[in-house]
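Sample entry (338 residues):
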Amino acid sequence: MSRRQLAMVMDLNKCLGCQTCTSACKTQWTNRRGRDDMLWNHVETQPGRGYPRDWRGSGGGFDGAGRLRPGRIPDRARDYGAPFEVNHAQALNPLGALARPTAPHLGPDTPPSFGPGWDEDQGAGAYPNSWFFYLPRICNHCTNPACLAACPRGAIYKRDEDGIVLVDQKRCRGYQHCIGACPYKKVYFNPTFGRSEKCILCYPRVERGLAPACAQQCPGRIRFVGYLDDEAGAVHALVTRWRVALPLHAEFGTGPNVYYVPPLSPDKLDDQGRPTGERRIPDAFLVELFGPRAPEVLGVLQAEREKRRRGEPSALMDLLIAYRHDEMFRVSRRKGAT
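Predicted structure, serialized as tokens:
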């Protein structure tokens, strides 16, 4: 274990699904060849297959005895989606479009079958009770990383000073055991250079006291960054004091250090359009993602919202609203510093 652990909390009640975090990450870190499919930071729609496709059922992580579970390596074309060029002549030329009115797509001759954001904004349930929400995902910089345990080269390591998990590019030989072992499938194989790469939590920025690019640029202010032991920070408050931030699929056994405030939702409506008192997003689905405490957390969030509606103070709501952007980030290595 590292001496300290830098963590992130994402408030799903404020995520816009705008992919600004994705753009910020790719702008910052993808200036080399071979990173066409590289989405270390992305936003997927739930319920959905996610990215890479069906990552939740792809194995990896640890079993109850602490042994590595078998996991598959996502297929580049099937699970990531091969890059393709849009047919701009047809897309931008009205006459060209009219000439082929039955064309099923504006892409290449063979229509693509999957890609990033493929099922974006597709929900579940029937009108008027349909629902979906956005789930941003990055590497969890786990306390017990399965990728690290699986690497036969010792190329993956966890920094002692902040718990960030990195890949030593000089030692990596591209065996991809790390990809199969990661249950979140957040390690990416660069086919051009034959090595594994992943989110580095913007550690060069952190070392200068700056928040990761995805958090800094988020227009919804959903991302809080700080050390779990920093009692003055928002991350400690949300994870430990208020206990409203939950890990994603903790049953994978890796000890993820990215936490989520689960999404509230409007009540379901009956045949007469009247609220039923039942949340539209099924509690069972949120329990599957975030564990058995998800309904309890939703109850706390709802109670604190009601306090604010009555004009009463709520320290939790003030914290989650994030009135001051700079107070969301406490990334200095010195304990107690901002």
